[in-house]
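CHAIN AND CONFORMATION:

***
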Amino acid sequence: MSTNGSGPAFDQTSPKLMLERVVETLTQAGYYAYPHIDEQNRWTVSIDTEDGHLDVRLGGGIYIVEAWDTSPGLFWEEENERRFHALERRARIVLPAIARGLVADDEEIWWDEQEHGVGARVSTHVPFEQIQQIPQVANQQLEMLNQLLAEVERRLVD
């Protein structure tokens, strides 16, 4: 796909139309997909599953596919409130070091204050011409997301 007009043309009449095709593809694969405008005013298609959330948006001749989720309450079983807060503080402090050694360029981890747990995001790109691959990519991204969350949590509790 050429974005400068020198290659084969792909119908890019409207971002909403481009993403309606993603909704159809994900719906045919059994997901409940819905379009919306995200917090950065971009058209986005989202699905919410037990394995995490997935967002698809447009970006320079490709679909950007991001899986993300938080794993709430990592230390909720800790009965001692002082120790609970210390464990969470330690997690916030060591997460950047874990990220440097574990997280790839297309991944992100953070401590979610509201959920009291680890958050993670993994992303990839799918060319417009491969739109039918988005459900398989979604499954792969959600699996990678959960593997990343599990590994980060393992490192935080060891």
